[in-house]
Amino acid sequence: MKIYDVSLTLQSAMTTYDGEPGPTVTPIKAIDKGDAANVSLYSFGSHTGTHIDAPVHFIPAAPGVDTIMPEVLIGPATLLDLSSISEAITAADLQGAELPPDAARVLLKTRNSRYWDDVSGEFHRDFVYLAPDACRWLVDRGVRLVGIDYLSIEQFASPDHATHLTLLGAGVVIIEGLDLRAVHAGQYMLVALPLKIKDGDGSPSRVVLIDDWE
Ligand SMILES: [Zn+2]
Fold first, then answer.
1. Which of 4, 14, 24, 76 could be cross-linked to 209 through a Cys-Cys bond (beta carbons 3.0 to 4.6 Å apart)?
2. How far is the CA of 101 from the centre of ligand 1 (A)?
3. Is 68:62 a contact under the CB 8 Å cutoff?
C-alpha cells in the first residue's frame, strides 16, 4: 500500500485564486511568552489551497460543506491523465478516456499540476478547466465527485458559471487545488475530508490517494 498526499500545504506564501488573501497564523498563546501551550488563530479563505466546493458556493440556500456525505468523500477513484489538453476538457475528451462505466469519483490530472512548481505564488489565469458539456456527461453517467489540479474547475472569468452550476446543481462534489504531480493515471482509494463548517461554502481539505489498498 502506498499513500500519496495530494494536498497543498497551507502557508502565507501560496497561490490563491486571483489575488484572494492567503492564510495567516496569529499566536494567541505562546510558550515562549510564558503560556502553557502554543495556540494560534488561523485565518484563510474557504477556497484556499486544496479544497472542496459545497453546493451553496454557487447556489443560494443550497447545502453546505458540513452536509457532504463521507460515503462520497471516501471511496475508489479513477485518475485520468489529460496532460496533453491545452485549454478545455470536453465531453469528447472524457469519452475517449479510460473511464470505467461505473466510475463514481473522477480526478483530472492536467498540465495545471506543473503550476505547483512555480513557488512565486502567481495565479495563472490560463489553467485547464472542465467544459460544461463534460460536466453534463459526468452527471449523466452518475459520477458523484470530480477533482482537478488547479484552484478552479471552471474557465477563468466564465460568464455563466455553467461548470460549477451543472456539477453543484446535481450534487456532485468538487475538489479543487489538487497537487497531482506525483501520481499517475489509474485506480486509487480516495480520502478527502473537509472541515465540518456549518453551512460552509467550501473548506480546505486534506486529500490522499491510496494505491494498492487491498
Ligand atoms: Zn470551485
1. 4
2. 25
3. no
Each residue's pLDDT tens digit, 25-62: 999 999 999 999 999 999 999 999 999 999 999 999 99
Q: Are 202 and 194 in contact (CB under 8 A)?
A: yes
Q: Which of 44, 14, 75, 70 is CA-nearest to residue 202?
A: 44
Compute the distance from residue 201 Cα to the ligand 1 centre, in Å. 10
Q: Identify the bridge partners of residue 59 per DSSP, sorted by sequence position.
A: none
Cα-to-centroid distance, 31 and ligand 1 (Å): 38
For residue 21, is it within any domain? no
**How many Å lie between the centroid of ligand 1 and the Cα of residue 187?**
24
CATH of the domain at 114: 3.50.30.50
213 CA distance to ligand 1 middle (Å): 29
**What are the pLDDT digits (tens) for 91-145?**
999 999 989 999 999 999 999 999 999 989 999 999 999 999 999 999 999 999 9
Give just the sign of the alpha carbon dihedral 122, 125, 126, 128.
positive
Q: Return phi, psi of residue 19, to 5°.
A: 90, 5
**Domains held by the chain: number:** 1
What spacing in Å lies between the alpha carbon of 170 and ligand 1's midpoint?
14
